[in-house]
Amino acid sequence: MGLLQSLFHKTFAHGIHPPTSKKQTDQLAIRRMPFSEKIMVPLSQHFGAPAKSIVHKGQEVVRGEPIAVADGFMSVPMHAPVTGVVEGVELTPTARGPKAEAIIIKSHHAASQQVMYGADYDWQSATPEELIHQIQETGMVGLGGAGFPSHVKMQVPEDHQIDTLLVNGCECEPYLTTDHRLMLEHTDSLILGIRIALKICGAERAVIGIEDNKMDAVEKIRSRLQENDPISVGVVKTKYPQGSEKLLITALLGREVPSGGHSYHVGVVANNVATLSNLGNLIPKRQGLIERVVTIAGPGVAKPGNYLVPIGTPLRFALEHAGYFGDAIVDASRLILGGPMMGNTAASLDVPVTKTVSGILVLEQTQSSSEQQKIYPCIQCSHCLDACPVKLNPSQLGRLAAKREYEVMAEQFHLNDCFECGSCSYVCPSNIPLVQYFRIAKSVNRERAA
Ligand code: SF4
Ligand code: SF4
Q1: Whether pLDDT at 371 is above 60
Q2: Contact 166, 268 (CB under 8 A)
Q3: Which atom of ligand 1 is nearest to the CA of 435?
Q4: Ligand 1: does its nearest atom lie under 6 Å from the Cβ of 423?
Q5: Which of 194, 281, 302, 403 has its CA 20 to 30 Å from the CA of residue 184?
Q6: In angstroms, how far is CA 29 from the centroid of its own chain?
Q7: What is the average per-residue pLDDT within 305-313?
Q8: Which ligand has the shortest distance to the CA of 423?
Q9: Which one of 376, 430, 435 would you pick to mutate in the ligand 2 pocket, going by the greatest count of ligand atoms within 8 A of its CB?
């Protein structure tokens, strides 16, 4: 792709250009990870009510079998990632810190990768309502990291008309390459998942948004589309955080989602490529989500790559398989779940990989001396204003946060439009941890409102 050509690719205002750091894994094909001895399936891996266990201690389960049912519409079921014996439902550590209930399965020593459960499903003859139910049965949630149940996201309120399904293939976080590999290696499943989603939301077209650092994926998908296909590919500039749903809608469709609004307010349903390629694989077989592709990378990993990891695999096992043998989260490295910009540090190596974990990164400690970590006063350079993609004033918000004026931040300075992309912190020469301040402010305001 020529430089001149890239100038014409669409984008949004502001944003930043951190090193993409994707070369470590973007040319490596997805590899399957073996089963760990113990699999821990948390009952809450999604936004909404936790699933309800339907298994008991000592019960034999086979790979793909439902082991927990959805507790209402805003919930999803869980399926056994491995054939084995249920050891119980126990409180286990989670990446966020507090323990939560999980179904513990002792893997059978000769467990097969074959999925035992499922049946052919004629999705083309199904109604949109039947397809929404079927999506809930898969246990699918937004695999881009949000964890919102996919069947809820696809159910558009009746008073809104949808004309476009937006498929998010940007994957703008540094290091992560799972979506890139899925677009290259599971192109047909992705296209099938898009056709199913089109049928549900009634949109006349689907546009797949892909950054211009993944032109091989653009070409592969275009080569699989038919003449006059309602699906097309829109190439956007490589820039962080282009993968934000609202920014992608603006860049590709020229529509602004109103503050506090939803994509359906501008006629759009949006989904991530990983979610749709998995649905394209699972729906025609009536199977559940039991594994996902995870990028394991960073300077601290000897065998980086994209691994197809059974849900519930302990982080320690996954990291050891990828060549990281640290005993704990040591000073010299940082363990991040997700991408380095919006991901979270893991509280322990004993937490399971869940449906929303797109990446496991072992990064070098970038700020090793206390002098470098020191926070300096704001010098009014305005770099953070130039970086903020939703045109907030992070410097002003930071000053208010220091005075704990959290309500003023929300009422007068649009704190709730901040989606915590971290661009402001990234560019701040004074090392002010702006995004951490904003997370705390939002969380305090939520608690006060409850
Ligand atoms: S973290 Fe929030 S305030 Fe900072 S750049 Fe991102 S959206 Fe703007
Ligand atoms: S980037 Fe940092 S130093 Fe510059 S104006 Fe923003 S908060 Fe102040």
Answers
A1: no
A2: yes
A3: 1
A4: yes
A5: 302
A6: 20
A7: 98
A8: 1
A9: 430
What's the pLDDT score for residue 46? 86
Which pLDDT tens digit goes with each residue over 383-407? Answer: 999 999 999 999 999 999 999 999 9
- Torsion sign across C-alpha atoms 98, 104, 110, 111: negative
Q: Which atom of ligand 1 is nearest to the CA of 417?
A: 7
Give me the pLDDT at residue 3, please: 56
Give the pLDDT confidence of 312-365 residue by residue, as tens digits.
999 999 999 999 866 554 534 578 999 999 998 887 888 999 999 999 999 876
How remote is the CA of residue 410 from the centroid of ligand 1, in Å? 13
DSSP for 44-90 reads --SSSSPPEE---TT-EE-TT-EEEE-SSSS---EE-SSSEEEEEEE
Can you read off the two tokens belonging to residue 101? 């209930």
Residue owning the nearest CA to atom 4 of ligand 1: 424
- Residue type for position 447: E
CB 162 within 8 A of CB 269: yes
What residue's CA is closest to ligand 2, atom 1?
428
Instruction: List the residue whose alpha carbon is closest to atom 6 of ligand 1.
Output: 421
* Ligand 2 binding residues, C-beta < 6 A: 378-384, 394-395, 398, 427-430, 432
Beta carbons of 400 and 413 less than 8 angstroms apart: yes
In one-letter notation, the amino acid at residue 450 is A
Ligand 1 atom closest to Cα of residue 384: 5
Ligand nearest to the CA of 415: 1
Q: Which ligand is nearest to the CA of 437?
A: 1
Backbone angles phi, psi at 441, to 5 degrees: -60, -45
In 206-335, alpha helices (H): 215-224, 245-253, 273-282, 315-321
Q: What is the Cα–Cα distance from 153 to 135, expressed in whole angstroms?
A: 11
**Stated pTM of the model:** 0.93
Contacts of 154 (CB under 8 A, 6+ apart): 132, 135, 197, 200, 201, 269, 271
Query: Reduced to 3 DSSP states, what percent helix, strand and coil does the chain have, rounded to the nearest 5?
Result: 30, 20, 50
Residues 256, 314: Cα–Cα separation, whole Å:
41
Calpha distance 274→170 (Å, rounded): 11
State whether residue 408 is helix, strand or coil.
Answer: helix
Check residue 1 and give its pLDDT. 56
